[in-house]
Structures are given as structure tokens and as C-alpha cells.
Amino acid sequence: MSDTSSTQLSPGPLPRQVADAHVDAVVALDPLTGTYLGDRASHGKLPDLSPAGLDAVAAQARDTLARLDEAERRPGADSDVERRCARLLRERLTAELAVHDAEEHLRVVTNLGGPVHNVREVFTITPTETDEDWAAIAERLRAVPAAFAGYRETLEAGLERKLYGPPRPAATFVEQLTEWAGEAQGRGWFEEFAAAGPEALRGELTEAARTADAATVALRDWMRDVYAPAIEGAPNAVGRERYARWSRYYNGTDLDLGEAYAYGWSEFHRLLGEMRAEAEKILPGAETPWVALAHLDEHGRHIEGVDEVRDWLQNLMDEAIEALDGTHFELAERVRKVESRIAPPGSAAAPYYTAPSEDFSRPGRTWLPTMGQTRFPVYDLVSTWYHEGVPGHHLQLAQWAHVAGDLSRYQATLGGVSANAEGWALYAERLMDELGFLKDAETRLGYLDAQMMRAARVIVDIGMHLELEIPADSPFHPGERWTPELAQEFFGSHSSRPADFVESELTRYLSIPGQAIGYKLGERAWLLGRANARAAHGDAFDAKAWHMAALSQGSLGLDDLVDELSRL
Fold first, then answer.
1. In terms of domain of life, where is this protein from (predicted)?
2. DSSP per residue over 176-190, as a string?
């Protein structure tokens, strides 16, 4: 009998076609993904967040992997574009299934990016231009109770199996739900959102929104009165086995966690030295760089007003596009558009970015949570918006959407690896420093402070989840083992961020283990890939051409990313 592994299959779908069919199948199961991609049929729906709904998504992933096995044996599957797509698809689906099969979905409780957060956030990017758009929003509002009930059913299944979510994020989530419920203000977040709708649909929208707000209250009451007491005393840290699984999911590779922890410390010491040098220029004799940053909070440049900071950030991104396009990048006209927005109340403390729809009818947007502030230090904004906007997240994710036809929809959308995107955004901050855009000690110290935050993330995220020992050369509690309390103290004393931001950050790390380390480890991968390419080309290395080729290859996990970047 012939060896089936060498049998040439009849013509059929190649890996990119399998990947794009997977996108279509996921959109049918998850209308949130559909809305992000610009699929109008998705705008009135919400996903099934129950165990059965999540099992259906996993079953689709298994079916796609089986189809990929066949596609990779077909003629033409070994071309660069097919090989790269297949490499990503297999890695991503395998990582997703590892998380699902370990039943991690039964205990997902977070302060951002969780199932309920995603339901609320999707309303902020759903089209609102026409009465038809608002009719779809009313339909989606009416679907909120079922979605929240499905999420509760999933957590109930976790309680039955003694798979407990982390207590600290659960407490924060209860606080967020309380804020969204808006009981003190007389109307909740959904009713507030729906109030902007057209008069012709006022009654329908208000009724639907009140139903959604009531579902928010019901979920809050259950989380507070049933779930939180049931998980009291459960560990916040996940331990080595679970952490390795999650870090693979977010970084697209199996990390040497000891080496990554040591790298975080080496970056901490390097950045501390640079920060001291810049701080001396701002406040000579300052005991620490953060004393100099506190001085800037009072005496440095500021933007006054929420509308004013939104406009200032828009101008910062517009100016960056004008300066970089044609010199360090070659940008399509539709990639040049990005919008600055203020994040809705009740968001986590960190700024974020939402990518454009596939057809660019919804542009890329940066979002600033104000946390009740009306006065914004410039040092804390410049490099952050190079990260979130241009040349950071926006240039990468909008370029992926622009070249999706040459890649696959999957590589430009669902296949995104967190550490690849966050690594590029951190690389983008460093690039702007290399190019001289951080022109004074104030903005450069702010950039270094942001870099230090990412190094501290590697240290505390790995350290507290694995309960590692703090090194002997640490200026902070050497020889002790990390706890969430020590992590918050360390982070707060080595950051300019206010206490509420620091608390939100530590809760985030407990919510989504392994994600926060991808910024610094991803940046390292981008820098290594560039260094390898430069070494290979010598004086012929063209940074602009390399950047555009790198941004046009779609997503990859970190090991694969270094390999592919080095070939460009």
C-alpha cells in the first residue's frame, strides 16, 4: 500500500483559503468579531457565552486544523505566503485549544478584555450613522441579557468543577458592573449610550437599553453575592503550569520563563541608569527619577481639558504621519487616517487602540481613559500615543487590513498574536526615540518611564504567578518571594502612574497571566529580527523597505516572527 503522507491530494483549498473559511465560521459564531471586521449582519447580535457556545468555537478550531492537515499536503502549499499562513494558523489554533481543553474559560474573570467587557465595548464601535444602524443596536441591546446569562452559566460550571477565578479581579469586576449599572445616576451605561439614538427609535432604544442595564445589575448582584463568596480564599496566582499555557497563548511560543524573568531584571537595571541621567536634567539632585516625574506632574507641560487633550493627541498622530510617511514608511491613503477618542466611563486605566474595519469604513481609533481627570501631563502622553497610534498599533494593524488580500483575512485579523502587536508598538516608541522625536528631557524621561513599566511587567507578572525569589541585587526586598502585595508596592515605587492606575494594572496581570510580558519580549523579538536583517544586508539595508515588508507579513508568534523578520 502507498504511504498516505506522500499521496498527492486532488486540487482543493490551500492554507490561506482554509484560514479565511475559518474567519467566516468564527464570525457566524461570534458577532463581536463580525462587528470588528465590519460585517453588517453581525451588528444586531451577541455571541453565546455559555459553555455550549464556547465549546462550539473550540469544535470549529478542531475542524479547521483537520482541514489544514489536508491543505498543507496539496501542491502549492509550500510557497512562502501559504507556508507563513499555515504556520500561524496551526500555532494559534493549537494554543487556543490548549487553553480551552484545560477549561480555563470556566474561570475567566477580569478587569478588562473579558467576555462582558467585550460585549460593552462592541457598542462603542458599532455604526451609528443611520436609523438602520440604530435599529441593529436596539436588537443587540435586547441580546445583552442572554449573553450575560451565558457568561454566568460558564462561571457556574467553573464553580461546580472547583475551577475558581481570581478573587481580586472578581472584586474589581463587581465595582465595574456597579459603575456601569449607574444606579446612583438614575440610568445605566447602556441607557446613556442609547440616548444618542434618533428620535424615531427613542422608545425602542430606551426600553432595550433598560433591559441591558437590568441584566448588568443582575450579573453584578450574582457576582457579589454568590460568586465572590464562593471563591474567597482562592489563589490569585495561577502557578507554573497554567502560566506556561497562557504565556504560549499570548506570546505564540513556549518561553523559557526563567530567562525571561532574568531579562526583565536586566532591562530594569539598564533603564534605571538612563532614567537617572534624564532626571538629573529636570531636577538636579532628585533622589529618584520618579521624584523628577512628580515634579513634572506639578510644573511640567500639561494639556487642560478633556476635549483639548483629545484634539492634542489627534494632532500628535497627524504630525507623526506627515513626518514618517515617505521617509521611514510608505503609507496608503486609508492607512493615514486614525482618530483620537475618549474612552467610555468604567474602562480600565490604560489607553488602548481599536483597529479599522476590513473595508476601513470605521477607521483605527485610539482611546484615552480620563479616570475623572481634566489635566494631563505631556510627558505621560507622547510616547504612549506613539505606541497606541502612530507608528505603533495603528500602522501595524491598519497595514495588515490594507494588505489582507495579499495575505489572508486570518493573518490580518483573528490570527493576531498579542506579543507581536505589543512588541511592535514598544519597538515603535523606541524607533521614535532613535529618530529624534523625543526632543527634550521631559518627553524622554516619560518614554523611559513607560519602558520601565514594561520591564517591571515582566518581573512582576512572572514573579508573582510563579512565586519566584527576588534577586539579591534587587533594590527591593531582595531574597523574598513575590506576592501580589509586593508586586503592587514594587510597581508603584518604580512608576510615575497614580495609585488607581497601579492597582488597575496589578489586577490586570492577575486577570490575564502571561499577556503583560509580551510588550518587552515582543520588542526584543522585533529588535533581533531587525539586527539580523541588517547584518545580512550590510550597507544595502533599507530601513524603510524593511519596515514595510515587516508590517505587511501579517501576524506571527515570537519565534516565527524573528525567523521571518531576519529573512526580509
1. Bacteria
2. HHHHHHTTTTTS-HH
By the 8 A CB rule, do 447 and 121 touch? no
pLDDT value of residue 347: 72
Nearest to 377 by CA among 464, 476, 307, 295: 295
For the chain, domain boundaries: 12-235, 247-518
Helix (H) or strand (E) holding 18: helix 15-29
Cα torsion 129, 132, 137, 140 to 10°: value is: -150
Length of the chain, in residues: 568
CA distance 388 to 395: 9
Which portions of the chain are predicted below pLDDT 70? 1-10
431 CB contacts (<8 Å, ≥6 apart)? Answer: 328, 391
pLDDT of residue 9: 57
What's residue 4's pLDDT? 42
pLDDT at 2: 40
The pLDDT assigned to 115 comes to 98
- Provide the residue type at 13 as one letter: P
Residues 417 and 90: beta-carbon distance below 8 Å: no
> How far apart (Å, rounded) are the C-alpha atoms in residues 482 and 239?
12
- Provide CB contacts within 8 A for 99, sequence distance 6+: 105, 245, 246, 249
pTM here is 0.92
Buried b (16+ CB within 10 A) or exposed e, 109-122: bbbbebbbbbbbbb
